[in-house]
Structure formats: C-alpha cells, structure tokens
C-alpha cells in the first residue's frame, strides 16, 4: 500500500472541484490543470497548485497527454485522477502513469481497452454469461453483411461505433433501403470522433429504460455493486436527469442485474469505481450496453442513497486498501435525483448556448446539493461540454426528493444564457415523472415539456440582481427581496 499525498486532476470545471473537495477532506494536496481560457476558473482558484496545459481547444490542452504528463512532473504529484470526459477513458493516460511510477486513480490500461471496444466488450460479456442485445459478433465489413444480420434479427436495428460512446457514431436503421446511408454516416461520425470507423449492428429496442449499476472493485478481486441508477431521460443519447434507486425495480430483478454487473466487472479484472450500463425492455429483460471505466457524472445520487464518498473510495482503492464492505451489508437509504443544468435551449432541440453567465446563485437547503464549476458568474466556453452544474436532491421517498428538486430548481438563479433548468422543473412536475413512466424516448414523447413558458419570476429576479449589481449605490438585497415577495 502507498499513501497518496498529492493528486493532479486531469480535468476542469465541476468535476475537478468535486474531486478537490474530497482531497481537502482527506488531507491530500490537489493540483489543477487549465487551458488558457480557464485561467480564472473556480477549479484553478480552489486548487493548491495549478499549471497551464495549453490553449483553449481541448485537443491542445485537456486532451494533450504530453502537456498533462509535464504538469504531473512539474507538480511532483504522486497520483492522477482523470475525472470524466477528456482523457478519463484513454488507456494511454493510465499506461503512461504506471510507466512513470504515478498512481492512476482508475482501472488498468487493459481494462479500459477491453471495455472501450464495444465489439470486444460484447464478446467478453457473452463469455461471462452477461446478456447482450442480439446483434453481430464482430465488426461489419460491408453492407451485404449488415443487411443479412438485420434480416436475421429484424428491423429496426442500430448501427453503432465499436469505439467511443455518448451517442456518437450511432444510427437507427428502419429498413434495408436505409442501411447503406446509415452505415456511411455512422462510420464517418465514428471515424471523426474516435479515429476508429468500425461499426457493428444490434437490435433496436423500441422503448427501453436505461439502468446502470455502480460497482466498486479492489486490487484483491473483491467486487460489490452499490445498486442502480435510472438514466432514461436523455437528449441526443446523453443523460439529463438521473435518479437512484430505480422507481420500478423488484428485489429479484435488482439481484439479477447486480450479479450480472459484478460478473461484467470481473470479466475484465476491473479495479476501481465503474459503471455497468444496461437496457431494460418492457418485459424486464435486461441487456449489457457498455461499461464506463471511470466515475460517472451522476455519481452523487449513489452517494446520497449509500452515504459513501465515491471519490474517497476511488482513492483508497488506488492506495491498495481493500474494500471494507460486503454486498449483504449495503443498504439503500431514501431516494435521490440529479438534474443536469446545461447551457442549452430545450425549445430549440437543446442547442448549446455558451456565453457569459452574468449571475449565478445556487439553491441550498436540507437534502439539496449542487456541484458546479461556477461562482457567482463565469463563462461557459464554446470549447467544452456546456454543463454548468448538477442539482441533486435527497428525500426519504421519491416524492419528497421530487418536491425538493422542484423547490431547488425554482430557487436556482441564473442569467446570461439559456439553460435546461426550467425544462427539468417541468419534468419534475409532469404526471409522467410522478408515475415513473420513463424510457429513453421520454423527451420525444413529451414535446410539451420543451415549450418555452412565460418568463419565470426567479429568472426575472436574477436579471434584476444583475442590473442592480451594475447600478452604483443600489441596495441589491432589499430590492430583490421586495421583488420576490411581490411575485410569489
């Protein structure tokens, strides 16, 4: 076992800050990296040390392995935490750290490679009795082969990139007539996004739910799961709202899915915190979709219902400490919900809306947590993911967590860019959410929730606060408070 004393966080924004806060609790020094456009960002200010790793484009900074490793050397960090996104699922970073005697807070390079290749991962899962969606055994080499497979398993099918994720390189194919064009587009997008144009075919599930299991696995081979998260509300195959536990989950199904998640992790000799993602059909059949070999954006909902700090667990595992938990001793406490606040316009197809956040005040209260990369103001650069923050609420029941989320989103003050805040609030108030009638097509099935409504009072209050900030001698607190009282 080796005690970690200084961690370089190879990331930015809210996840960098979130990791740094755990470092501070554990008495570990934190090192930030930043691009030139992030020089004044909150994660840079919070860190014990910070190093510039290049200009604004991520390919020249946060994805620049050479610059990241140079920052590790300069800082004398004895460990690297990749966060999520950027280099977090690049085997090259894990490999480079191990070669230099630096602890990589994550799995082995081989596990990242095995699970990052969707074709290899599917084959590995089948060999370890983990159900997969019917489809090809390997990559598709030509249109004729794709047509033959589609005819065998039945339309519609999905053409999917063998590498990467996040919905990139994925096309639904409804008929033989669409196959050639769909394959070409999927290959082109996969090649551009991942440098790997390989495509495979699998059956398209009509109205599935997206259920994932959080796992922890140590260097001694012990592996447990920390229950499930429902992540069905998505746009462009990317999550917007998550909850834990799943609203409709029998004890028997949880046991079967949890056991399959553990088998999946053990199949690639996984070490660390990871997530096994499944699709669940209307008949409660579940299928392996992919494994995320890193911390998930939505990890806070699992922290709320288990009482564990997953970043702290990652660090302890990386130090060689064995898991002190047994599967039978872990319990679910209450219910947690996470809403991602993106700088996007839901009414325009969730079009990104980067820019200057001129006023930012996060909600507080019992059972409310906000992970954000912004202070009272700041920029959402065009170069990176447009997520501003994550609002997480906990309650003894799903209804209580929902009511707290509605209150938190109502209290959230943000001005300067369009966001998903009001969309998330409308979802929380909808009958479909209350009844937990969820699927990965939720957004398409409820277009009314995307509609712009009259300007909400809290948004006007935020705008008024900005105006008052720019007016010399104004009493911001008293004036805004009076405005709020008039517009309740």
Task: Provide a compact summary of the structure.
The chain is 36% helix and 24% strand. It has 17 helices and 22 strands. The strands form 6 sheets. The protein has an 8-stranded antiparallel beta sheet, sandwiched between helices.
Molecular structure report:
This protein is globular. It has helices spanning 13-26, 42-46, 65-75, 91-99, 109-116, 118-127, 143-153, 176-194, 251-267, 299-306, 310-318, 398-411, 421-429, 431-434, 442-445, 457-469, 476-486; strands at 6-9, 29-34, 49-52, 79-81, 103-104, 157-161, 170-173, 199-203, 209-217, 223-235, 238-244, 272-280, 286-292, 335-342, 344-345, 351-352, 355-357, 359-361, 368-372, 378-380, 387-395, 413-415. A hairpin with a 2-residue loop joins strand 10 and strand 11. The protein folds into four domains: 6-105, Rossmann fold (3-Layer(aba) Sandwich); 134-203, ATP-grasp fold, A domain (Dna Ligase, domain 1, 2-Layer Sandwich); 209-450, D-amino Acid Aminotransferase, Chain A, domain 1, CATH 3.30.470; 459-486, no CATH class. 36% of the residues lie in helices and 24% in strands. Helix 4 packs antiparallel against helix 5 (109-116). It contains 17 helices and 22 strands.
């Amino acid at each position: 076992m080796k005690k970690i004393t200084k961690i370089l966080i190879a990331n930015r924004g809210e996840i960098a800050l979130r990791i740094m806060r755990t470092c501070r609790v554990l008495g570990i020094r934190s090192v930030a990296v930043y691009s030139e456009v992030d020089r004044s960002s909150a994660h840079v200010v919070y860190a014990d040390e910070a190093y510039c790793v290049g200009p604004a484009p991520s390919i020249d900074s946060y994805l620049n392995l050479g610059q990241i490793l140079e920052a590790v050397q300069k800082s004398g960090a004895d460990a690297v935490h990749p966060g999520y996104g950027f280099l977090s699922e690049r085997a090259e970073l894990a490999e480079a750290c191990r070669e230099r005697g630096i602890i990589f807070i994550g799995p082995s390079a081989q596990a990242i490679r095995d699970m990052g290749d969707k074709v290899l991962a599917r084959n590995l899962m089948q060999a370890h009795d983990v159900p997969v969606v019917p489809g090809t055994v390997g990559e598709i080499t030509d249109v004729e082969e794709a047509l033959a497979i589609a005819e065998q398993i039945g339309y519609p099918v999905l053409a999917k990139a063998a590498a990467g994720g996040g919905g990139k390189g994925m096309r639904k194919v409804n008929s033989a007539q669409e196959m050639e064009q769909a394959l070409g587009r999927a290959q082109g997008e996969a090649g551009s996004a991942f440098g790997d144009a390989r495509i495979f075919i699998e059956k398209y599930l009509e109205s599935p739910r997206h259920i994932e299991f959080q796992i922890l696995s140590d260097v001694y081979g012990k592996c447990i799961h920390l229950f499930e998260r429902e992540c069905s509300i998505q746009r462009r195959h990317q999550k917007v709202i998550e909850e834990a536990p799943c609203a409709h989950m029998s004890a028997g199904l949880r046991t079967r899915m949890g056991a399959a998640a553990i088998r999946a992790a053990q199949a690639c000799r996984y070490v660390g915190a990871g997530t096994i993602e499944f699709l669940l059909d209307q008949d409660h059949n579940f299928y392996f979709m992919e494994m995320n070999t890193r911390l998930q954006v939505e990890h806070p909902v699992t922290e709320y219902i288990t009482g564990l700090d997953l970043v702290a667990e990652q660090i302890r595992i990386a130090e060689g400490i064995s898991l002190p938990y047994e599967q039978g001793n872990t319990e679910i406490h209450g219910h947690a919900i996470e809403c991602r606040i993106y700088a996007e316009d839901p009414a325009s197809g969730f079009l990104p809306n980067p820019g200057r956040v001129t006023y930012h005040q996060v909600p507080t209260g019992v059972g409310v947590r906000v992970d954000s990369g912004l202070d009272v103001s700041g920029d959402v650069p065009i170069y990176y993911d447009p997520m501003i923050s994550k609002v997480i609420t906990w309650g003894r029941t799903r209804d209580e967590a929902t009511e707290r989320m509605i209150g938190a989103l109502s209290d959230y003050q943000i001005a300067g860019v369009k966001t998903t805040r009001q969309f998330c609030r409308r979802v929380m108030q909808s009958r479909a959410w209350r009844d937990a009638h969820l699927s990965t097509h939720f957004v398409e099935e409820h277009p009314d929730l995307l509609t712009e409504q009259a300007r909400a009072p809290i948004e006007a209050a935020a705008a008024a606060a900005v105006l008052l900030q720019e007016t010399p001698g104004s009493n911001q607190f008293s004036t805004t408070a009076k405005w709020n009282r008039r517009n309740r």
